[in-house]
TrEMBL record:
Family: Belongs to the short-chain dehydrogenases/reductases (SDR) family.
A matching Pfam family: adh_short_C2
InterPro entries: NAD(P)-bd_dom_sf, SDR_fam
Species assigned in the record: Brachybacterium fresconis
Protein name according to UniProt: 3-oxoacyl-[acyl-carrier protein] reductase
UniProt keyword list: Oxidoreductase
EC number(s) on file: 1.1.1.100
One MF annotation (Gene Ontology) recorded for this entry: 3-oxoacyl-[acyl-carrier-protein] reductase (NADPH) activity
Enzyme class: oxidoreductase
Database matches in PANTHER family: NADPH-DEPENDENT ALDEHYDE REDUCTASE-LIKE PROTEIN, CHLOROPLASTIC-RELATED (PTHR48107), RE15974P (PTHR48107:SF7)
Length: 264
């Protein structure tokens, strides 16, 4: 039997801040359930007006929090509109006050309104940029500032969700591209703070927004003939924030079941 040396990565606090939670059937909710099962205490950011405006649904994050607390973990709910530049650092501060030092930041929030080159408004583009790019930068910055460079204190793991969809989804896709660059830069710029950053592109995940036509088309573009679900994203996040996943950093990972992969 082979024996392996212990991981050189210091154990991180089992506390995590997740943004963009909102609905129990969403990706962030699945990630929250997975991290709770792994013993994490959680701070959950949400913004109910987005769910109502874009998805036509009410936020049921209170029910999610009750569900998670039944597993024994602490859950802090932190509402906030990430378009406001004062909100991201205040969310991190509130999470730290409630849970202590944070070991993980998982950004699942987004602004996503379908529009194209010819009909996107300046106001919509600016809001996409503020929420998808600027807020992510400010969250990452505040998360990093909790650790002094060069100290023995463990840093943390940052995971951001992205997308490569752009056609007729211009402001969303363009700002997700910018998000990729800034998050991946963190692996290098924040290495002295022990922080590792990774971006996940999960491909099309049905959280209630897909029509039957979209669902069938997406499944047909996947070699296995089926779409992934929120749990497939959660499984990867759970691995990446763990000590076993610590060597994967500074990567844009396509965890999409081979969606739209060329057959060669």
């Amino acid at each position: 039997m082979h024996s392996y040396p212990p991981s050189p990565v210091a154990a991180l606090p089992r506390t995590a801040l997740l943004t963009g939670v909102g609905r129990r059937r969403g990706i962030a909710a699945a990630i929250a359930r997975g991290l709770a099962a792994d013993g994490y205490d959680l701070a959950l950011n949400y913004f109910e007006p987005y769910d109502r405006r874009v998805l036509g649904e009410d936020t049921d994050v209170e029910l999610l929090a009750e569900e998670l607390r039944e597993t024994g973990c602490r859950v802090e709910l932190i509402p906030g509109d990430l378009e406001d530049p004062a909100v991201p650092p205040s969310i991190v501060a509130a999470a730290r006050e409630a849970l202590g030092p944070l070991g993980a930041l998982v950004t699942c929030h987004c602004e996503s309104v379908d529009s194209s080159i010819l009909d996107t408004t300046v106001e919509s583009f600016d809001r996409h940029y503020a929420v998808n790019v600027r807020a992510t930068w400010l969250l990452l910055k505040a998360f990093a500032e909790q650790v002094e460079p060069g100290t023995e204190t463990p840093g943390g793991s940052v995971i951001a969700l992205t997308s490569d969809h752009t056609v007729h989804n211009l402001p969303y896709g363009a700002t997700k591209g910018a998000l990729d660059r800034l998050v991946l830069a963190g692996t290098h710029e924040l290495a002295d703070r022990g922080i590792r950053t990774t971006v996940i592109n999960p491909g099309p995940i049905d959280t209630g927004w897909m029509t039957e036509e979209i669902r069938a088309s997406g499944a047909a573009a996947t070699p296995g003939g089926e779409l992934g679900g929120p749990q497939t994203v959660a499984d990867l996040v759970r691995f990446l924030v763990s000590e076993r996943g610590a060597w994967i950093r500074g990567q844009l990972l396509h965890s999409n079941g081979g969606f739209a992969t060329p057959a060669v």
